[in-house]
TrEMBL record:
Annotated ranges, domain SWIM-type: 128-163
InterPro entries per UniProt: Znf_SWIM
Protein's UniProt keywords contain Zinc: yes
Key words of the record: Metal-binding, Zinc, Zinc-finger
Superkingdom field: Eukaryota
Location of the region described as Disordered in the Swiss-Prot/TrEMBL record: 1-80, 471-490
GO molecular-function terms, A-Z: zinc ion binding
Protein species of origin: Penicillium nalgiovense
UniProt name for this protein: SWIM-type domain-containing protein
Biased composition (Acidic residues): 35-46, 54-67
Length: 490
């Protein structure tokens, strides 16, 4: 392609001006406008047509203009991007060139970004999401979906912005841009981003989403939110809903025909807009409170079902854990599992929900201490045993807390106490009196000495926190303030 001045080559004054429009590339590359060409033509008009050296000068001009044409042809296919990098677009077809030009000279806003097992996701403000992976880059915009073989304007822009963070200030070298949006002679952007996305996001003022924020992955958070709207715990939700984010999905690909819950679950996993909306509707503090309240309710139901079974032989119509029995060993295992789940979730949900966790644990401990008896005593059926076991072998208190005769292995369990250890004293102090009442009862019941010492230590820690003025409550669940403490309004 010739430069604009090349269109006047070999014109005589008597010839007409060609009506060819300025090439698009020349216009984009910032070539001189037609008015400059007119002034050049004016100077030619004032020259002597009959000069004896005209032919030689024409030959010299031909050489200069030819060289100038070649230089202009190269420059006309180059774009100086907003990052300061100059890109050669000569390897692109017209459609890709147009997309690249829009992306490299335009501006988009990144709402947030995050690392995924398959690469990096960038959510743009005008809805599209760009994914940069080790093999390819994709975008959810209509332009990319129509022609997925080449990069769209969002990919061109994003890759340029990211490269701009890693290259030195002086970028005099021109790089050739390929149709997939990757510039040659520059390191692969996904390699540069390894371990550096947070610093890049900070520099560019993009919100960085950490998948394991608050100790939970995004899939776990979505599962947690969904379970908050029903009676099940997150661990017991539909297995088929649980999936990872290893492969990006468009909203259309998230649709599961005939299954609204599965569709919404996938959308929450793969669409940041849906996920953020759900988090606003059901924040982490609310989810934590609901979770520990559910565990407390399920432990109460389980013990109530066990009492009824022992007294009447009646099996629960709606068991707490379908598939598990109501025999004494089943109940012991389920109660231990409840405590284990609370302990795990205390760490995963910190600093949210700790007050509710204390309530769930202390209430469960009170219930077990109150059951230091033979559950078959006085039963309507006159049963003497379940399966030949003696009284201690079906006594929940004896099985979960033990006695002075209990072996060291049972002592080491320290039912509930090891979970209370994970909670801050500021939240334990509210239950200090209840814990002291429990201590008095198990002293009478001759609990193992290590268990007594452990509980006594927890009580002193809780009472010390209150005495030192650290008795303020945490902010109310779901208020979004995770720093400091404030007294609860009475």
């Amino acid at each position: 392609m010739s430069a604009p001045t090349g269109q006047f080559h070999r014109l005589s004054i008597g010839q007409n001006m060609p009506e060819t429009a300025l090439p698009a590339r020349a216009a984009r590359a910032g070539r001189s406008d037609p008015s400059d060409e007119d002034s050049d033509r004016g100077e030619d008009d004032s020259s002597s047509v009959g000069s004896s050296s005209g032919e030689e000068e024409d030959e010299d001009d031909d050489d200069e203009e030819s060289s100038h044409d070649e230089q202009s042809e190269s420059n006309s296919a180059s774009v100086l991007a907003t990052s300061g990098i100059t890109y050669d677009l000569s390897q692109l077809d017209s459609e890709s060139e147009a997309r690249a030009f829009v992306g490299l000279t335009g501006r988009f806003d990144v709402v947030n970004c995050r690392s995924t097992p398959a690469g990096y996701d960038f959510q743009l403000s005008d809805r599209p999401q760009v994914h940069i992976g080790p093999d390819s880059s994709t975008c959810t915009c209509a332009a990319f979906q129509d022609q997925p073989d080449g990069a769209c304007q969002h990919i061109f822009w994003l890759v340029d912005q990211l490269h701009g963070c890693f290259l030195p200030a002086s970028r005099s070298t021109e790089v050739t841009l390929t149709p997939n949006g990757r510039p040659d002679r520059l390191p692969r952007i996904e390699d540069l981003l390894k371990g550096n996305l947070l610093s890049v996001a900070t520099r560019l003022k993009w919100q960085y989403l950490q998948d394991e924020e608050d100790g939970m992955t995004r899939t776990e958070k979505v599962r947690d939110i969904f379970s908050a709207f029903n009676r099940t715990l997150p661990e017991d939700t539909r297995r088929d809903l649980t999936e990872t984010t290893e492969q990006a999905r468009t909203p259309e690909e998230c649709v599961v025909q005939g299954d609204f819950e599965a569709t919404m679950f996938r959308l929450a996993i793969h669409d940041d807009g849906v996920f953020n909306s759900l988090c606003k509707a059901m924040p982490s503090g609310a989810c934590a409170a609901i979770y520990f309240d559910k565990v407390q309710e399920q432990s109460r139901r389980l013990l109530s079902d066990f009492d009824r079974y022992c007294a009447t032989g009646e099996f629960p119509a709606n068991p707490v854990s379908p598939g598990l029995g109501i025999e004494v060993n089943d109940v012991v295992a389920q109660l231990q599992r409840f405590v284990s789940r609370i302990e795990v979730n205390i760490a995963a949900r910190a600093p949210h929900g700790s007050e509710r966790a204390v309530e769930a644990l202390v209430s469960l401990l009170e219930s077990v201490v109150a059951r230091n008896n033979d559950p078959l005593e006085g039963n309507a059926l006159g049963r003497q045993t379940f399966h030949g076991e003696d009284e201690d072998q079906r006594n929940l208190y004896h099985l979960l807390i033990g006695s002075v005769e209990t072996d060291s292995e049972t002592d080491a369990r320290h039912f509930v106490l090891h979970a209370l250890d994970a909670l801050p004293p500021v939240d334990l102090h509210q239950s200090a009196n209840r814990l002291r009442d429990i201590l008095r009862k198990i002293e009478v019941n001759r609990a193992p000495k290590p268990y007594l010492l452990h509980l006594g230590s927890l009580i002193r820690t809780a009472e010390s926190a209150a005495a030192m003025g650290f008795g303020q409550k945490r902010p109310a669940a779901g208020n979004g303030n995770s720093g400091g403490y404030s007294k609860r309004t009475r």
